[in-house]
Amino acid sequence: MIPPRFAPVLFGLLLSGLMSLIVAGIATVRAVGLPADILTLWASAWVSSWAVAFPTVLVVAPLVRRLVVALTRSAA
After folding, report:
1. Measured between alpha carbons, how far is 48 from 21 in angstroms, rounded to an integer?
2. In this predicted structure, what is the pLDDT of residue 76?
3. In angstroms, rounded to a whole number, what is the distance separating the alpha carbons of residues 9 and 39?
4. 26 burial class (0-12, 13-18, 19+ CB within 10 angstroms)?
5. Which positions ≥6 away from 46 have C-beta within 8 Å?
6. What is the pLDDT of residues 31-56, one digit of tens each?
7. pLDDT band at residue 75, thresholds of 50, 70 and 90?
8. Cβ distance 13 to 20 under 8 Å?
């Protein structure tokens, strides 16, 4: 099992992996259609986009959490 202290990093890894997989797939199909090697093209696009997405999520997530807290504070 993974220790709980790594939960934010694991969350960022999984979230960025899934989001970049979906976005890379959509962008790849829009760019090249559905050729025979679509899975190879998609995988290549995904790996490079995940390499950017994962560290970005780790840096941006704390800022977004603070923004969400600020935007959802009660008036009391």
Report:
1. 10
2. 62
3. 28
4. exposed
5. 20, 21, 24, 25
6. 999 999 999 999 999 999 999 999 99
7. low
8. no
Half-sphere exposure of 62 (CA within 13 A, CB side): 5
pLDDT band at residue 73 under the 50/70/90 scheme: confident
**58 confidence band (pLDDT: 50, 70, 90):** very high
Length, in residues, of the chain: 76
Distance CA 40, CA 25 (A): 11
Q: Do residues 55 and 20 make contact, with C-beta atoms less than 8 angstroms apart?
A: no
The CA distance from 52 to 55, in Å, is 6
CA distance linking residue 70 with residue 48, whole number of Å: 33
Q: Which of 11, 3, 16, 4 is nearest to 56 (CA)?
A: 16
